[in-house]
Automatic annotation (TrEMBL):
Keyword field: Electron transport, Membrane, Mitochondrion, NAD, Respiratory chain, Translocase, Transmembrane, Transmembrane helix, Transport, Ubiquinone
Superkingdom, natural source: Eukaryota
Gene: nad4
Sequence ranges assigned to domain NADH:ubiquinone oxidoreductase chain 4 N-terminal in this UniProt record: 1-99
The protein, known as: NADH-ubiquinone oxidoreductase chain 4
One term of GO molecular function: NADH dehydrogenase activity
Length: 441
């Protein structure tokens, strides 16, 4: 484990100081992904466990998802000014180091430190490569939401074990915690996912962030909250059984309301961001039901959502680069001029509405069974939400692809081959991993 960490740190120094080639940095992350894939056996539940670091199936899959998303970030950011490439490389390697410590750490304190440090490179991306002046307000929202729940979590950690709170996998006496400890320990993860009523920061951050920031936010940063929630629910499951109905009810209500809100959005990025909140609400429900169906369904949906939402943000960015607007009133009639791009809109929107054989379909079916096991008649409300998710994904596709074209075709720019490759590399694992579903189960 330490060998991999030292390799990442040395590579960061080399690429930040010496390398000024865009394609070399991009291919490094692809080769690093396949190195991790072939070097480490994927079907072991626990391996390389030591005092500080360890790896299980969940952490391995989330780290591999992070590597894949970072690799695709370089393809999507090809028009970045080369003068800032070294800084961009450094930020991407910092993300990889943070993901390494968050997903492979056995210490709650070490996990907490890097869980919060993750805010710094995200805010740098928003401030440094954002589009408008409102990016400072978006960064402020992100910072306040995270720090407000961070300090109670930190003081709870310190008080639980007299500053000796170390190992992540066994703390049986935490099952005797009261409601306030449970609330402070869980809210830091629920806000990051985010939970309904604490989700305002996410659309604002997506709107002001560059495409690289949106891909990292949707693809992997929201999954940090799910990863932490999974580990803490293993420790406080007794009190969770008594009060999980409150959070499950709030998630169901929030998913229903935000699904309706999606129909009234005119900004592509905001609509996709609200769609992410709805999908992550399903993940929260799956974890809170405390059964194997919910656990595997949440894991599958987190993996599928990371690829699908990232691909949709790439599509919105491709349209933004051509039309200089994210408004759905201006991005219309795309099928008349970019017919092959319209095909990719269809593929990713169909994956977002859980069309087979995407991972989202398997994840939502697992979560439906999990919710029926927990409380049988709730499946009717869940099915209503799934219908609304299907309808707003269909609305997104039809509204952007059909209608009157508002721009002169003589001034439009053709789609690059690299952009089609970017969309293909999002769609391929999202729809082909179903052939090795034992990877998740």
């Amino acid at each position: 484990m330490l060998m991999i960490l030292m390799f990442i740190i040395s590579s960061m120094i080399f690429f930040s100081l010496k390398v000024k080639s865009w394609w070399l940095a991009q291919n490094f992350f692809f080769f690093f992904f396949f190195f991790m894939y072939f070097k480490i056996p994927m079907f072991n539940y626990f391996l390389n466990v030591s005092y500080l670091f360890g790896m299980d199936m969940f952490s391995y899959l989330m780290f591999m998802l992070g590597l894949w998303i970072i690799s695709l970030v370089y393809i999507s950011s090809f028009n970045l000014k080369s003068n800032y490439l070294n800084y961009f490389n450094m930020i991407m390697f910092i993300f990889i180091i943070i993901f390494y410590f968050c997903f492979f750490s056995n210490s709650f304190i070490l996990f907490y430190i890097f869980y919060e440090i993750n805010l710094i490179p995200v805010i740098i991306l928003i401030y440094g490569w954002g589009y408008q002046y409102e990016r400072f307000k978006a960064g402020f929202y992100l910072f306040i939401y995270m720090i407000f729940f961070s300090l109670p979590f930190f003081f709870c950690l310190l008080s639980l074990n007299n500053f000796n709170f170390m190992f992540m996998y066994y703390f049986d006496y935490l099952n005797n915690l009261n409601f306030y400890y449970y609330l402070f320990l869980m809210m830091i993860f629920l806000v990051k996912m985010p939970l309904f009523m604490f989700h305002i920061w996410l659309p604002k951050a997506h709107v002001e962030a560059p495409i690289s920031g949106s891909m990292i936010l949707a693809g992997i940063m929201l999954k940090l909250g799910g990863f932490g929630m999974y580990h803490f629910l293993m420790l406080v499951f007794k009190i969770n059984i008594k009060i999980n109905y409150f959070f499950i009810s709030l998630c169901l209500l929030g998913m229903f309301m935000l699904s309706l809100v999606c129909f009234f959005q005119s900004d592509l990025k905001i609509l996709i961001a609200y769609s992410s909140v709805v999908h992550m609400g399903l993940v929260i429900i799956g974890f809170l039901t405390l059964n194997n169906w919910g656990y595997f369904g949440s894991l599958i949906l987190m993996f599928g959502h990371g690829l699908c939402s990232s691909g949709l943000f790439c599509l919105s960015n491709i349209c933004y680069l051509r039309f200089k607007s994210r408004s759905m009133f201006l991005n219309k009639g795309l099928i008349n001029i970019y017919s092959f791009l319209s095909f990719w809109w269809f593929l990713l929107c169909s994956s977002n509405m859980s069309f087979p054989p995407s991972l989202n379909l398997f994840g939502e079916l697992f979560l439906l069974i999990s919710l029926m096991i927990w409380l049988d008649y709730l499946y009717l409300f869940y099915l209503l939400i799934m219908i609304l998710m299907f309808l707003y994904s269909l609305y997104l596709y039809l509204y952007t692809q059909y209608g009157k074209l508002f721009f002169n075709m003589n001034y439009l720019v053709y789609i690059n081959l690299s952009e089609y490759l970017l969309l293909f590399l999002h769609w391929l694992p999202l729809n082909m991993i179903f052939m090795i579903m034992e990877l998740f189960c």
